Amino acid sequence: MPIIGNFTLVDLVVFAVGLIIIWAIVSMPVYIAARLVMPNASFQDALVATIFGPIIYVITLFGAYYFLGAVIGSQGYTWALVIAFIGWVLIFKVSFRTGWLRALVVALIAILVFAFVSVLFGFYLGVMVQPPFFPIV
């Protein structure tokens, strides 16, 4: 019997469990980066950072672009990206209870670990983005 649309209770439970598993997997690069910088970092801190980080990033990005785009035009998006990244680093600072520099290092290492793991899985699974996707500068 459908509960929401054509989805049954089993479908919704499987979806929720899948989201939790993906959340844990996405938290791994952040946890690895945090452990490299701070040996006392916990996986729960990484989970908090990965649940609130993207939310703050998106809200800040769109909010800053909305206001800066009206004031300085197309360069507003570039500044909005910088402000959103600072918001993301703030989430790392708060969730790992550390300073700005360590939070920045955790964010940068997490990006590198994520990129490395993504390329590794891409090679392993044979899923890669075709070269025309990236413009030549």
If you had to describe this structure to a student in words, what would you say it looks like?
- The chain is mostly helical and 137 residues long.
- It is 77% helix and 0% strand.
- It has helices at 9-37, 43-72, 76-95, 100-125.
- The chain is globular and about 55 Å long.
- The mean pLDDT is 86.
User: SS-based structural class?
Assistant: mainly alpha
The largest sheet is: none
**Overall morphology:** globular
Structure summary, number of beta strands: 0
How helix-rich are the residues, as a percent range?
A: over 70%
Terminal-residue CA separation: 54 Å
Concise overview:
The protein has helices at 9-37, 43-72, 76-95, 100-125. With 137 residues, the protein is mainly alpha-helical.
Q: Which descriptors apply to this entry?
A:
137 residues, 4 helices
SSE layout and pairing:
Layout: H1 9-37, H2 43-72, H3 76-95, H4 100-125
Helix pairs in contact: 1-2, 1-4, 2-3, 3-4
